[in-house]
């Protein structure tokens, strides 16, 4: 452990290890991705996806090493039983920090299929890691404002088309499709701007996971609903690198996906859209109550 080093120096060492880890594994990943492009044979591509997922899991495995090196975080985790790498899942979580992603990868690596996150299209230009996300077939989403869609109605439904295209590629291998229902990180400013009815959450956006169910609902074994609480306050990424992540409380809830949600069209079926939004809001009401209890049990 690096506990004898000042926090800033720990942060520099952790950042260096993260960068070296990424640079080490990106080259074999790019090589296998190139092979997959050159060999459009379904059976071969399925095998190459397993190889690429193995490379990503090795990258996450070393990230777990430097996270433990920076600090032995206290993990309070419940509900992971019943997850495996043989089935596909739809996964969601509350979103408070960029650290959420590394927390989820730390806990779920090799316990379930590789998490595939919905990403903003602009993130493909992030040096090196953007290409890694592309090679691993993460779905990149172009988000349009209501005002833009009013001026360009031909762009409506493009998110659904992108989701369907991504999910088509996932049908040959088990996958965990991940979507932050809030769409963005919780901040006091965003909470006030939204006039959110929840104490610890922003309003959920149901469309993203509805599109996933529309595209691959029969393939999904369950919805994994994750709740993350940081007793010491929401950490920044630099806090994680510096070893300031003292305690993390995580609860997993594996839920059956209602059978009558499978094969429905969220865009065109108004009754289904209302039912689905009610279901998502009920999940969020329960999550808000769970977070209130976790704040009581694990105060800062």
From TrEMBL:
Coiled coil: none annotated. One of its GO terms (molecular function) is acyltransferase activity. Pfam families: Acyltransferase. Keywords: Acyltransferase, Membrane, Transferase, Transmembrane, Transmembrane helix. SUPFAM superfamilies: Glycerol-3-phosphate (1)-acyltransferase. InterPro entries: Plipid/glycerol_acylTrfase. Residues 89-231 form the Phospholipid/glycerol acyltransferase domain. The chain crosses the membrane at residues 12-39. This is Acyltransferase. It comes from Aquipseudomonas alcaligenes.
């Amino acid at each position: 452990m690096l506990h004898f080093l000042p926090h800033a120096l720990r942060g520099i060492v952790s950042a260096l290890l993260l960068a070296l880890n990424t640079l080490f594994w990106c080259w074999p990943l790019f090589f296998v991705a190139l092979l997959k492009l050159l060999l459009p044979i379904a059976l071969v591509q399925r095998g190459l996806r397993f190889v690429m997922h193995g490379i990503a899991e090795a990258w996450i495995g070393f990230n777990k090493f430097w996270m433990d090196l920076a600090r032995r975080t206290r993990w309070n985790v419940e509900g992971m039983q019943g997850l495996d790498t043989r089935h596909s899942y739809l996964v969601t979580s509350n979103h408070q920090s960029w650290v959420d992603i590394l927390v989820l990868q730390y806990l779920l690596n090799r316990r379930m299929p590789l998490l595939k996150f919905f990403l903003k299209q602009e993130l493909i230009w992030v040096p090196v890691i953007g290409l890694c996300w592309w090679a691993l077939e993460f779905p990149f989403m172009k988000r349009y404002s209501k005002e833009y869609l009013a001026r360009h109605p031909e762009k409506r439904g493009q998110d659904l088309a992108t989701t369907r295209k991504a999910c088509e590629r996932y049908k040959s291998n088990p996958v965990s499709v991940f979507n932050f229902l809030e769409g963005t990180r919780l901040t006091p400013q965003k909470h006030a701007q939204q006039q959110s009815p929840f104490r610890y959450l922003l309003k959920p956006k149901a469309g993203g996971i509805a599109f996933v169910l529309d595209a691959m609902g029969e393939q999904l074994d369950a919805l994994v609903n994750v709740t993350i609480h940081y007793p010491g306050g929401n950490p920044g990424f630099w806090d994680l690198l510096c070893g300031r992540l003292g305690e993390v409380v995580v609860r997993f809830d594996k839920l059956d996906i209602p059978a009558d949600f499978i094969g429905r069209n969220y865009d065109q079926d108004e009754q289904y859209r209302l039912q689905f939004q009610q279901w998502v809001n009920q999940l969020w009401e329960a999550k808000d109550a769970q977070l209130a209890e976790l704040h009581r049990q694990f105060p800062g």
